[in-house]
Design brief:
2 helices, alpha+beta
């Protein structure tokens, strides 16, 4: 297993889908953090967000560091995520990193 940096943008007009699937996405991610598959992950935003205002951030995609056997294996894992209809897989970047 090796760590890979994943940057994957959301497809246009998928905010409602992202929000609807967010609880399932976070629950799945929690399991992957626990077993060491996910090392780190965050939402990518279109602009800085002040969470004290109580409004939704302008989501743009996701960034994570994922342990996997290969780029292809990481992509296959991503395609089973609850965000599968949100993420733009064709333009995702998956690169090995030192962690």
């Amino acid at each position: 297993m090796a760590p890979f940096l994943v940057v994957i943008r959301d497809k246009p007009d998928t905010l409602e889908e992202r929000l609807r699937n967010r609880p399932a996405h976070l629950e799945r991610a929690a399991g992957f953090y626990k077993d060491g598959t996910y090392l780190y992950g965050v939402a990518v935003l279109k602009e800085p967000h002040d969470s004290s205002k109580g409004d939704l951030p302008a989501f743009a995609g996701s960034m994570m560091v994922v342990n996997g056997e290969s780029k292809e294996a990481v992509m296959e894992l991503l395609k089973t995520d609850p965000y599968k209809n949100v993420w733009d897989y064709e333009n995702a970047t998956i690169d090995p990193v030192l962690a």
